[in-house]
Amino acid sequence: MRLATPIFFLALSSFSLALENGLMRIPPMGWLSWERFRCNVDCKTDPHNCISEKLFMEMADHLARDGWRELGYVYVNIDDCWMAKERDKTGQLIPDPERFPGGIKALADYVHSRGLKLGIYADLGTHTCGGYPGTTLDQIEQDASTIAQWGVDMLKLDGCYSSKAVQALGYPRMSKALNATGHPIAFSCSWPAYQGGLPPSVNYTLLTKICNLWRNYGDIQDSWDSLLSIVDWYSANQDVLQPVAGPGHWNDPDMLIIGNFALSDEESRSQMALWTVLAAPLFMSTDLRTISEASRKILQNKLMIKINQDPLGIQGRRILKEKSHIEVFLRPLSHSGSAVVFFSRRTDMPYRYTTCLALLNFTQNAVYEAQDVYTGQIISGLKTSTFFTVIINPYGVVMWYLYPTMYIEQSDRTKFHPFAL
Ligand SMILES: *[C@@H]1O[C@H](CO)[C@@H](O)[C@H](O)[C@H]1NC(C)=O
Ligand SMILES: *[C@@H]1O[C@H](CO)[C@@H](O)[C@H](O)[C@H]1NC(C)=O
Question: pTM (2 decimals)?
């Protein structure tokens, strides 16, 4: 199977139709409370971990202090369960007064003073998934204006307790309402996840015009099986999903669960590599106060982040699914570079996978150099016909950043790279 030029043109054509708020030209990065901290509102018995302004301030402190911000992890995002159980007398959304005594505006100021951005959550429907006040169709403009006044930089709009018809009206209307506030507010839409994630129920042409990112599959849980189900769904539907991603409009396979309880280091390296090759938003959901050195190293891998943030913004694809249970993913990058991920679905022992670049869709007469993204090792002098062996651990990946170092036939330069412009 070849990643052919038409796919590339599709990616470009959606570009011109994209949401024109100028935001998220590269995949957004940051931290989101949901997967790790859920709807824990019990600040009396669990003050350290409950959804409160203290939690978000502490995460902001760590993002600013521990090297995250400089790498691009700038969003501090609140998920469900931040609100009071009722709107105020004027119908405005308000935070729970005991858990957010300073209010959201003060929290936004705090986050901004550390060079970070604040994201918040609402739900198109009668209630949020956690049972807090929802945003009904007639409340959309008021809620957009409230979060703009607070200085919030991003809105995730969930879709619990609303019908297909309400969602079809509400998501475009919120996009318009956010724009009308005059404040740059990135927009994350859960709409496709509620409609099965695929056409004809989901219109991705429309989504690229109204949302900066969208969730199209179930919530990630702290489990390897959950992670695999997402990766498999993305691969199975890549002909639909891959062309619709691009600068300003991204598929969102959900949060990184690295640093929590389920994943081994091997599996953590796999999530980071797979999310990067998918050009996915990188929202961590882990306790940055206690994260292990091993997890931090995986999340702070500079070359990995550079690849994730590649300015062309082309989502990668699974190009091979071998009988040996090795899968190969490929993402075209700027300057004729590529990211290749060799992923083992085996459960026995490190597997020696032998291949050559010609078998991985590289058709040009060039000599390549590969840098192993995790070990830093450089492999030089790879012609497309040169066979090589990578050793992939069970549950693990080998990830290469590949770039040409020499053209064998200069005259053939226009045909040089399968993804070059
Ligand atoms: C609103 O949309 C217009 C046109 O699409 C765009 O130029 C402008 O930057 C947007 N403003 C905001 C605040 O998103
Ligand atoms: C999808 O949305 C686009 C943009 O709004 C629209 O032009 C197109 O007709 C829609 N496609 C379908 C199948 O409804």
Answer: 0.94
